Amino acid sequence: MVPDRTGLVAVVFILSCGLARDVPAQQLKPGEFVREFGRGELVITRENKRGLHFILYASGKNAHTCGLEGEIREDVAALNEPGSSAPCKVRFRIIPVGIRVSVEENPETCRQLCGIREGFDGDYEKPALGCTPTALRATRTAFKRAYDVKAYTKARLLLEPVLTRCARTLSAIQWGQSLNDVAIAQYRSGDLKACRRTLMGFGPDLEDTEEEVHRNLLPSDAENWWPVVSAARTNMKLCRASR
Fold first, then answer.
1. Helices 152-165, 133-148: inter-axial angle, 10-degree rounding
2. DSSP, res 10
3. What's the average model confidence in pLDDT over 223-231?
4. Residue 32 has what DSSP assignment?
5. Do the beta carbons of residue 2 and residue 217 sit within 8 Å?
6. Which pLDDT score is estimated for 12?
7. What residues pair up with 93 in beta bridges, in sequence order?
8. Which residues, including other chains, have CB under 8 Å from residue 158's CB and lie 6 or more apart?
9. DSSP string of 58-123, one letter each residue
């Protein structure tokens, strides 16, 4: 089964009074924000004199998602849905870790923006340095470029920090793919012990069969997770066989 930290199964929230306090008298600014365990992304940009524009994507169990986009005026976005008598009003509030997104008015309209099992409200954190979605894409591009020219040591050194520095805001799939990519680069560079150690990050999932993955997870989650686990199992065989 996917570890709880992934967000594809029940997520355990750690509540902290220090994290929950609102920060008064601050204005929203452009930036990239991510929900814990990569369960959503919020991008705020400035649209010239029109003010702030946002795009929000959230994901939950069984591949249910939410998608929102619009303008933020006085920390509130009003989103109209066809057939709804009143707009979904969403508030954006600055908190110490980032931005808290909440439904301000008309929750029924807001629910139309999401799949059955998902909602978009919650805390969207400012990721650690190098862990924004844009930064991660750049790191993975650089990793692939190094790997493709067989600069395996350089490749692993590019991606290894992501596993520790970005763990809080990586999704299950991002986490698993990063483990696999780091491990295979370690294998190619001749560090078999490091390869095995990295793959142990999958925990008990590493021993799961395809049948067990599908039995333990909802259908879409299993379809997404099994290829990652399967690759990890193959990689572990490589690292063990070469000892």
1. 160
2. P
3. 97
4. E
5. yes
6. 28
7. 100
8. 139, 142, 143, 146
9. EE-GGG-EEEEEEEEBTTEEEE--TT-SS-EEEEEEEETTEEEEEEEE-HHHHHTTB-TT----EE
226 has pLDDT over 80: yes
Rounded Cα gap, residues 20 and 28, in angstroms = 17
Range of the domain at 76: 4-125
Q: Domain boundary at 58, 91, 125, which?
A: 125
Closest by alpha carbon to 136, among 38, 52, 223, 60? 38
Q: What is the model's pTM?
A: 0.83
In tens, the pLDDT along 53-90 reads 999 999 988 888 999 999 999 999 999 888 778 999 99
What pLDDT shows up at residue 85? 81
The residue to which tokens 């560090």 are assigned: 191
- Residue 150 shares a structural domain with residue 106: no
- What would you measure as the largest C-alpha separation in the chain, in angstroms? 66
- Write out the two tokens for 237: 């065989």
- Amino acid identity of residue 218, one-letter, is L
Q: Which of 95, 125, 155 is the last residue of a domain?
A: 125
| Buried residues in 97-116 as b, exposed as e (16+ CB within 10 A) | bbbbbebbebeebbbebbbe
In the block, which residue shows the tokens 């707009």? 87
Q: Give the Cα-Cα-Cα angle 215, 221, 222 (nearest 5 degrees).
A: 40
CA dihedral 102, 10, 97, 75 (to 10 degrees): -10
> E strand or H helix at 154, and its extent?
helix 152-165
Please name every residue paired with 52 in a beta bridge, in sequence order, or none if there are none: 46, 72
Task: Fill in the amino acid letter for 130.
Answer: G
